Amino acid sequence: MSLLARGPHLDAIQRNGLTVVEGDDRYAIDINATDQPGTLGAQDLLFICLKGPALIQAASSLAPLVNAGTHIVSAMNGVPWWFLNSFGGRLEGQRLESVDPAGVVSSALPPSQVSGCVVHLSSSIAEPGVIKKGNGNQLIVGPAAPGVTDRAARAIELLRVAQFDVTASSQIRSDIWAKLWGNMTMNPISAITRSTADVILDDPLTAQLVVSIMEEARRIGEEIGIELNMTAQARNAQTRKLGAFKTSMLQDVEAGRQLEIEAILGAPHELAAKAGIPAPFLSVLYGLAGQLNANLAGLANAPTR
User: What CATH class has 2-170?
Assistant: First the structure.
C-alpha cells in the first residue's frame, strides 16, 4: 500500500508513519509515502481523494499509476470528471469543462475505469501527518461504468475490512447529486457570509435563497435523469439538526485556502446550460463564490466566465 503526499505532510509520514486520532485512541500506520507517482508504477486499485482544483493540477502526474487494469475510486465532493460517461440520455459522454478542462483529468484517469464514492464522514488535519477522525463513518460506493461492477464490489469489501460503514450503490450518480443538493448551497453561502449553517437557515431571506437554488438543482437533475426523493425543506431540516457547524468551505476561507467552487457550483451550472434549464439563483451564487475565490488567490480579476 502506498500514499501520495507532499510538503510537510510527506516529511511527517515518512518519519513517523500516517497517524490517525479517533477519540482517545491514537495509532500510526507504516506506509510507503512519496511525492513521485512515477516511482510506484501502475496500481490495481487507486483512490482519488483530492479536491477538484488539486486534481486538475495533479492529473497528468498521476498517469504512471494507471494502466488498463487499474480500478479508480473517486472519493470527492461535488460533480466528478466522469459524471456523464456511461450515463445515458442526451448528455451521454459529454465532457464537463468545469471539472475536466481540455480533458486533462480524463486523459490520465479514464472514466471507463472508475467507481464513485460518496463520503458521509468528517475528518481534519490536526498537524502534518496526523488525521483526526470526526463524526460519521459512512461511505457509498458504486460503479460509474458497466465494466467495473465486480471491481467495485471488491473495493467495498476492502473498505469494510478497514471498518468503514459501506453501502453498495447501483445509482452512484444519484447518490452524488443527493449529497451535492445540500452542499451546493450551505458551503458557498457560509463562505461568503462567514455564517454557520444554523444562522443561514434561521434567516428567512438566506433560507429562501437556499431553497430557490435547490429547486433549480432539482430541475437540472430531473432533466438529466436524476430524481430526488425528498423536498428541499426536508433536506434542510436534516441540516438544521446538525446545529451551529462550520462548513468545509467556511473553514477553508478562514484558513485562506482556495475553495472547491467548480465541482460544487461550476459543474451544476454547466449542466444547467447543457440541459437548457434556467438557473438564475445558481448563476448568481456561482459568480459571487468565484469572485471570493479569486480574492483568496490574490488575483486582480475574477476568472472569465
Answer: alpha beta
The three-state secondary structure class of 86 is: coil
Known catalytic residue at 132: no
Q: What does the radius of gyration of the chain's CA atoms come to, in whole angstroms? A: 19
Q: Which CATH architecture has domain 175-296?
A: Orthogonal Bundle (1.10)
pLDDT band at 300 (very low <50, low <70, confident <90, very high): very low
Q: What is the largest CA-CA distance in the chain?
A: 54
pTM of the model: 0.91
Q: Which of 179, 241, 246, 274 is catalytic?
A: 179
166-188: burial string, b at 16+ Cβ within 10 Å, e else: beebeebbbbbbbebbbbbbbbb
The DSSP code for 263 is: I
Q: Which of 23-27, 279-283, 293-297 has the highest average model confidence (pLDDT)? A: 279-283
What's CA 119's distance to the chain center, in Å? 8
